[in-house]
User: What shape does this take?
Amino acid sequence: MQQNVSLKPYNTFGIDVDAEYFTALHNISQLPALSAAGITRHVLGGGSNILLTGPVKGIVIHNQLKGITVEKEDIDYMWLRAQSGELWHDVVMYAIEAGLGGIENLALIPGTVGAAPIQNIGAYGVEVKDTIETVDAWLWDEQKVQTFTNTECCFGYRDSVFKHSLKDKTLITAVVFKLSKHPVYNTSYGAISDELASLGVTEPTVKAIAHAVMNIRRSKLPDPKVIGNAGSFFKNPTIPTTQYETLLVHHPDMPHYAVSPGQVKVPAGWLIERCGWKGYKKGFIGVHARQALVLVNYGNARGVDIWQLSGEIVASVHERFGIELEREVGVW
Ligand code: EPU
Assistant: This one.
């Protein structure tokens, strides 16, 4: 265990604050010793969905649990077990090399396997919940690993039980994914079919779709190795259809997606852009010029300044549209 360790290399926003204690987790046999009551634990995966607003008290556990194995297979499916410290994109690469379908649209999402179920990562018409069979998690209080079924994970849009009743109560150790040997391609998201066409692909494969997604992401989203960021900072808000129809009177070009009868989702990026924030820059902080949903650190930004900017954005979207944005990124 190390003391006073800078977390700058461990968070994609590139915020420079110290962890009081820091340790790497390589084996689940280390978990009982880390389960002692009375200490605040922070589980760190890829650090790609957190904003650090000050020195972190307690212990930061850097998840390095590695391994991808075939759990079982039949003629239609293969079940892959991935340890939670694996990089998510490496699992996508493993699946596409094996020709397995289900997660190809989720290529290049930063972060680890363990973080994927917590916020039910999603992109280009696919959410990870649709391929998750089970999640194994260490329960800090009970000091044992428990297997959660897909239903028990209570998945929602960027949401799961691990953000609610099990928040801070577990460390996800492994996830089992059920992937298809006969992929059904999801190219409904317009940008994917356009990109496949420009790549000259007429018969999609999981590999071709993953490459199309990677091209789209690289063209829109900033690379955290170059500009600090944590992907979408806010969730896309869901509003009543009646409110949407009222807003349409003054904003006839407002995009939307139907989510359930009487409810629509509106892209937060569009709302933020319309409030004039896209490309905003002040000192080291800013709003990305190609995707207004992404807040960025151009150098030595402080987490509190990014947090404050996010508050100003929430307020201006509320004032202009009467819609309350919710932050997607977690705060330590
Ligand atoms: N839009 C704007 N201005 C912007 C950004 C977007 O007008 O600055 C409009 C676009 O023109 C489009 C709509 O908003 O009509 C949707 O934009 P986009 O396809 O870029 O997706 P998004 O809804 O902004 C979501 C996810 C992303 C994911 C993409 C692609 C959330 C919070 N974000 O963004 O996920 O990659 O869809 O599926 O749901 C993440 O969670 O970190 C993330 C990057």
